Amino acid sequence: MTSSAAVPEALANLRPSRDSALVIVVRLPPALDALRRRLIADASQGVPPHITLLYPFAEPAQISAAVLDAVAGIAAGHPPLAVRLTDGRRWPDTLYAAVEPEPPLTALQARLAGAFPSLPLYGGEHLFEPHVSIGEGPAVHAPGALDDPAWATLPVREQVTAVDLITKVDGRWDTRHQFRLTAPAR
């Protein structure tokens, strides 16, 4: 068992890795997921449709019991929640489905970010905005990218019950741990 004095230091000195992430996995309507699989290279490598909470996360070799316990404790402090994927939107380099409501997701992400100060979301380049990426790179600028019939499958509701730790091993992404959201709803 790790002492409480060692846990903050263990969490503060993690090195970021593009081979791990903390995410909320969501289900997409089949047509929208098929579009995502065509437009996001990592989708063919096992990356599920998701809301990113922390990426890059820690080097897989550094993901210790203390790290897992910290994530589990934060997740357990949040109740399951209903989210809605509302509509298709575009950033300069991403097509995405917007996600509502933002406040509970933002609170969860902020607690995780506070627990892992050496692992800023997207390397500190972007603020957290709940979304599910559907397209990245050159596909974002293709004519009609947001007019694809798959977008008409939105809005959809999704029940969020867990945070997943996904890691990349031998070129494939997979869920390594799942942390349940278990606090009672307020």
CATH class: Alpha Beta
Q: What is the CATH topology classification name?
A: Cyclic Phosphodiesterase, Chain: A
Radius of gyration, rounded? 17 Å
**Which sheet architecture does the biggest sheet show?**
4 strands, antiparallel
Strand content is 25-35%
CATH architecture: Alpha-Beta Complex
Task: Extract low-pLDDT stretches.
Answer: 1-7
The quaternary structure here is single chain
Which structural class should the secondary elements be placed in?
Answer: alpha+beta
Average pLDDT rating: 92
CATH homologous superfamily designation = Cyclic phosphodiesterase
Count of separate structural domains: 1
Strands of the largest sheet, in order across it? 3-2-9-10
> Terminal Cα separation, in Å?
32 Å
Morphology call: globular
Helix content: 10-25%
Tell how many strands the DSSP assignment holds.
10
Order of helices and strands: HEEHEEHEEHEEEE
DSSP helix count? 4
Brief rundown of the structure:
The chain has about 190 residues and is α+β, with helices and mostly antiparallel strands. The chain has helices spanning about 5-10, 30-40, 65-75, 100-115, and strands at about 15, 20-25, 50-55, 55-60, 80-90, 95-100, 130-135, 155-160, 160-170, 170-180.
Layout of strands and helices, then pairs:
Blueprint lengths: L5 H7 L3 E2 L2 E6 L4 H10 L10 E5 L2 E2 L6 H12 L4 E11 L2 E7 L1 H14 L15 E6 L19 E5 L1 E8 L2 E9 L6
Antiparallel strand pairs: 1-4, 2-3, 2-9, 5-6, 5-8, 6-7, 9-10
